[in-house]
Design a protein that fits this description.
Blueprint lengths: L2 H26 L8 H4 L5 H14 E5 L14 E5 L4 E3 L6 E4 L8 E5 L7 E8 L4 E5 L2 E4 L2 E2 L2 E9 L4 E10 L2 E7 L21 E4 L2 E5 L4 E5 L9 H4 L2 E2 L3 E10 L8 E2 L2
Antiparallel strand pairs: 1-2, 2-17, 3-4, 5-6, 5-17, 6-15, 7-8, 7-14, 8-9, 10-11, 11-12, 13-14, 15-16, 17-18
Helix pairs in contact: 1-3
């Protein structure tokens, strides 16, 4: 179920009870009289729900990483915070932008509503912004014809799959981050797994990989676990109206407290 919608409904209901109590019934109660149950369990929760609603809708929202598509940057079980106002102020529930702020940049880790099913939230890295030509051929990333710099690191061991992967640093945008590559996986995208997405004509698939031209108002997303990520290569571009916010910190991982901290 949509938690934002549930929270909004609770806010409206408790707000109405709070207003009725303040404007009418509170004045009629004798001093020291016990509050009725509808006040104790309804109206009294309004201030708490209001604070949570404002914080979650306009400032920061917590998420839990459910898959390994962003390994090694984020692993299953990481609890992260997402900055909701970094890309602009949006109305809760309907996610409509009412005030612009920063535009997504290459290299940002972004949470967004999955274009195939907007009721689901996904997290990936911004690889292409509007107007970019993104090439991922033979496991090499190029943006507008320029090969993105990488440097080989020691192999990465993934605790969840109990496998080693090749690991690189990648400089995309202003910062560096790590990526994982499975040398045993082929570079091509199996066509039976590719969705019939909007602007699919902007993409060319081959045995070497995929080349896409990012349309206006859209973004090309990829997971850092390059061979184990269902991303824009499979389901297309993320429209601006699907953006939720920018992920920036791991605030808890109950299995590994060393993972806490900010990330690129």
């Amino acid at each position: 179920m949509n938690f934002a919608l549930i929270l909004f409904v609770l806010l409206v209901v408790t707000g109405m009870l709070y207003a009725v109590d303040v404007l009418k019934f509170r004045k009629l109660r004798t001093k020291g009289a016990k509050e009725p149950l509808w006040v104790e369990w309804g109206a009294s929760f309004f201030p708490v729900i209001l604070i949570v609603f404002v914080l979650r809708s306009f400032l920061f929202e917590p998420f839990k990483i459910p898959s390994g598509s962003m390994v090694p940057t984020l692993v299953i079980g990481d609890l992260i915070l997402v900055n909701k106002f970094h890309y602009g102020i949006r109305l809760p529930v309907i996610n409509k932008k009412i005030m612009a702020n920063n535009d997504p940049q290459r290299g940002d880790v972004m949470v967004f509503r999955y274009p195939v099913n907007p009721s689901l939230d996904y997290i990936k890295r911004v690889v292409g912004v509007p107007g970019d030509e993104i090439s991922y051929l033979n496991k090499k990333l190029m943006v507008n014809g320029q090969v993105i710099d990488t440097a080989l690191l020691a192999d990465y061991y993934d605790d969840d799959t109990m496998r080693y992967y090749m690991q690189f640093t990648e400089k995309l945008g202003q910062g560096e981050h790590r990526i994982a590559v499975d040398k045993n996986r082929p570079p091509y995208i199996p066509q039976q797994f590719v969705e019939n997405f909007a602007f699919k004509e902007n993409c060319r698939y081959s045995g070497e990989g995929v080349v896409c031209k990012v349309p206006a108002g859209h973004y090309f997303m990829m997971g850092d676990n390059r061979d184990n990520s269902q991303d824009s290569r499979f389901w297309g571009f993320v429209p601006d109206e699907n953006i939720v916010g920018k992920a920036f910190v791991i605030w808890m991982n109950f299995g590994n407290l060393k993972r806490l901290g900010f990330f690129q």
